[in-house]
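Pilot study result, target chain (346 residues):
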Amino acid sequence: MYYFMLTKIFLKTPFLTLERKKVQYLTFYIIKNDLKRKNKMTTFANEKQTSIQLALVSFSTSFQKIYCFFNVLFISEEEKIQVIIRHWIRTLQIKFGWINEFDKLIVNYIYNLFMFDTFQASSKLINSFIGHPSCVYSIDYSTFDDCQFICSGSNDKTVSVWDIDNNKQIQSFNGHFRSVTCVKFSSYHYRNHHQNVIFSSSHDKNIRSWDFKHNKPLQILNGHTDFISCIKFSSFNGGRYLCSASYDRTIRLWDVETSKQLHVFNGHECGIWSIDFSSLQRNYNNDNNIGVIGGNGYKICSGSGDNTIRIWDIETYKQCNVFKGHEDIVMSVKYGSNELLNTILS
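Predicted structure:
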């Protein structure tokens, strides 16, 4: 049984409440609607926009420092909500996405997976998926053949697949011999080979893929010399290319069709914690078919223990920029969306 310590802070922003919850080693900051405090109606558009801003921020206080929220203590209440909205800080792994009626938030912490309904005025727990005997480090969501699935990677060295509609575990893959750090569904395999495939990275320095429809292992990608922190599919060519970041200070680019390693990016002076592909071409040539892999104009950003964010050109393999400013480990990087396409959040 877990005992929660709850601190509620009322914000100046209408309808929003910032809550702080503790459960064992984790602290959660939750922004949510509080319509009961206001006798004021919101339109559907405002309700949806407010719901989109709901954030669940988890911190592992036993392993890592809380960077952003040390500063939150010294700023106004209204500024607190802006800090959380601007900085989607994830120390373990939080998957934020819309499912079906665009009203469910999938998160993970401790040993279980939980699904929350955030489109209503007050959030509520919808489902919990119990099966891992140890910490869950990563989750991903996808649909195959009109069915909804979650995959999870755990400290127990396994990759599990969960059927959301039936609320049950349908597969568990053993193959990694150390903790599974990141899991991703492959849209490329589904579109091109009609396979339901998951890729996973691990502390064992390998990337593995699994066909969970036919319950069999597929590829093994090896080359890293230290544990792999995260993987990410390309935002071009249907996700054919996979990027991986490692504590060996390298970023590696893979072709999942041929299982070949295409390039090793060197430059960071410490282990790499996070990577992301840009979703926008950043040059004037709109012909995406030119170049070695058809990624003309796309970039990779990476965050590292050397306190820097670096930008890499996928076609030329050159380092484009180095951003300095953080005073400690850059644990998460993410290209912005919509009007923030040219922005990197860290």
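One observation from the pilot: Residues 77-86 form the longest helix (10 residues). A full batch analysis is planned for the follow-on phase.
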